[in-house]
Structure formats: structure tokens, C-alpha cells
Predict the 3D structure of the following.
Amino acid sequence: MSEILGQARTYSSALGTSTLLAGTFVFDGKSRVMQWSDELYTIHGYRRGDVVPTMELTLAHKHPDDLPRVQAVSSELFAHGGHVAIYHRVIDARNNLHRVLTAGEAVLDEAGNLSSISGVMLDLTSTVQRETELAAREAVQGAVGTRSTIAKAAGILMGRLGIGSDEAFKLLATYSNNRNTKLAGVACTLVALADTPANGKTLGAFIHELAQGRRPA
């Protein structure tokens, strides 16, 4: 758990804030016992002791429009293991909406069965709100900063995927539209992850998810 808490601090630092709410989780594939940190209870609108965390409870709090995608990712992790980073929305026990980024790792045992899933959930709600306010101000002032961040994000995709600038921008825009997330927020997260070497695996997983909107060759 201490290693995962370290991940949470890294992600918070990468996104430029030390106050970002980051909760951690561990799911035992054999016993199906799940553990949440206090912060994860908070994100879901609970306090420790209010509920017993389970995979079923975790999925029940996903936004209905995001649930099929989360279930598909979960099925892939259960079957094949690996790393994942996924944007989605959580509806907490008080019916408040949270925009989150979940990053984790699934480990299989020697027989190929799920051993554990552990990771961190970052509550980006306040960050997205700040990005929205910033984008509005910059729209009046020429939106120089926002355009710069989006241009950097497009450049990262161009270098990693070997695509042109137009297609890179379309991937960012498509992801933004499909996830109902501000384009500036998507670009900011991609640039922040790329600027932190320790986020290499998560960056790769996030780019892979962005690339799902790419047209077949």
C-alpha cells in the first residue's frame, strides 16, 4: 500500500497540485476482498465503516454512460493483467458527480488467474473546473496558454504514434467529446504525465486509450 500511496503523490505532483484528492485501492483476486484508503471512501461519499468496499459496489458508483467501458476494461484486466489508465465519472453516495482518472495494475499468478489489482483514483473534478475557468479567461485573452498545452499534447501523440498534427488533434478532440471532458483538461493530463519520467507506464496506457479513436488504416 505504501508504494501505491507513493504513486498517488507522484500523480498529484505531475498534475501540478499537492491538494488533489487521491485514493488508493487493492483488490484480492482470490478472496475478492477489496480495500479502500480513506480518500477513496471520501470520493465515493462515504466514511470508513459506512460500507464494506467490494468490486460490485465500486462498479455501482460508475456513471451509467461510462459503466460499459469500465466493465470492458475490468474484464480485460481480469483476463490478461497489465496496466490501465482510464478517465470516467463516479456518482457518490450523495449523488455528486466526480470526474476521475483511475490508474492501476493487475497481476496474474503462475496459472494465469487474477492475483490482485491495485491502483490509485485521482479526483480531477476541481482540476477540470479550474481548467474550465482558465480556458474561459484565456478565450477572452486569446487562449494562448490553452493552445500551447493542446499543441504540446498533439506533439506527444505525433511522436509516439507517428501521425500528423491534424490526426493528433482529432484524437484529443474525439476523446474529449466521448468522455465529456474538457479538451484542455485532457491535454493538460497528457502533458503532465509525459513530463514525469516515473509515469512512463501510465503515459503509455493513456496514449493507448486515446488512440482507440484512431481510424483503421
The longest helix spans residues 144-161. The longest strand covers residues 97-108. The chain is about 50% helix and 20% strand.
